Amino acid sequence: MEGLVYARMTPRVSFQAVPSLNYRLCHPFKRSIPATVMVVGRGRTLSVRPIRAQQPETKDGAAEKEEAADVLKVKEWEVGMLQDEVAASQGISIRRRPQTGSPVHYVGPFEFRLQNEGNTPSNILEEIIWHKDKEVSELKERRPLYALKKALDDAPPTRDFIGALKAAHQRTGLPGLIAEVKKASPSRGILRENFDPVEIAKGYEKGGAACISVLTDKKYFQGSFENLEAIRGAGVKCPLLCKEFILDAWQIYYARTKGADAILLIAAVLPNLDIRYMTKICMMLGMAALVEVHDEREMDRVLGIEGVELIGINNRNLETFEVDIGNTKKLLEGDRGQRIREKGIIVVGESGLFTPDDINYVQEAGVKAVLVGESIVKQDDPAKGITGLFGRDISFVTLT
Ligand SMILES: O=P(O)(O)OC[C@@H](O)[C@@H](O)c1c[nH]c2ccccc12
Q: Residue span of the signal peptide, if any (predicted)?
């Protein structure tokens, strides 16, 4: 068996005390395997490399099958660990999937604890991601990428999402509005009981929204891809953002088949390379990518990624649900704001915006667009909700 097994030393053992050693290491799916233990980082992480494949004994068919399934499981586990390790090196704490196998391993005098131990998510975002990861692999199995091809060819043409935001900003002198069709959220519960996504989207368009965001996650937001498709099919002209937790490029293609013109990429869950790669796919498909950040570290990462044109600053911490619109201002101050202006990136202020004062505040901070859900989706008449949010009717305003 080859590959890396990651283990963490308990505090009882110090680095200096661990030379390169040959050990039999407990593996999550194998009782034990021969391993060389090496220190690979300055932290507490050790890399443990199996030194030799175990010689296969003569096996019957069933044993061979079991062995093959084991090897596959081990590979999946290893890839997951590597993904998590790359993510962790970029400050991403959200893990892709729960850890499997027993968390503690004993090797000779050492006690090893697997990284990312535990099978319970440490916050709501992680819970959503674990659920999504499973959901996507099942969907993908049922409709692999090649099977989406025909639907992709038949999808309605893309609309210019960023162009619509810029045009709205120029037309009104106010941030372009991305109005969100959202029935519920884990932090706020049900926002609207009599929820007709198409009626709401039409109301938004009438009220002067530049673009529309449609939640497609079922379990946590009570959204759906049917909603997205229905809005696109109902004659709404605004470009559409598919508001989803994207982990796999397959989801981008799928969103496109349902009529999306833009997708969301959350920096708290996606490593830089994924963001770069997915941004490229969007470009290829004629879509826009809204890359969402919540703190300085994520903003700095995203500013270093080539091809990012649209950044959303989420005022809501998706791990704790705390909302602070001061976050938008904080992330646009000083050098960061300067770099954003130089790169011509459009910034979207997201979440927790309710009043004309709030809009004014984030506009002064430097945003050219806003993403608003709760305050307008709750209104009986969403168009009037928009007028209330901006303090004036923005549906016909044209700057002269
Ligand atoms: O309803 P609000 O507070 O106006 O927020 C809208 C939008 O910003 C929020 O729904 C959101 C921002 N980023 C997300 C990521 C996933 C799900 C939802 C979101």
A: none
In a domain, 36, yes or no: no
Q: Which tops the pLDDT comparison, 43 or 351? A: 351
64 pLDDT band (50/70/90 cuts)?
confident
The answer to whether 328 and 362 are in contact (CB under 8 A) is yes
| 215: enclosing H helix or E strand | strand 211-215
Which atom from ligand 1 is nearest to the alpha carbon of 188? 1
ipTM above 0.95, yes or no: yes
Residue 314 belongs to domain spanning:
156-390
* Count of domains forming the chain: 1
Residue 195 lies in a domain: yes
Can you give the pLDDT at residue 109? 58
Which token pair is 27?
A: 């593996």
Separation of CA 190 and ligand 1 centre (Å): 14
18 within domain boundaries? no
CATH number where 221 lies: 3.20.20.70
pLDDT greater than 80 at residue 137: yes
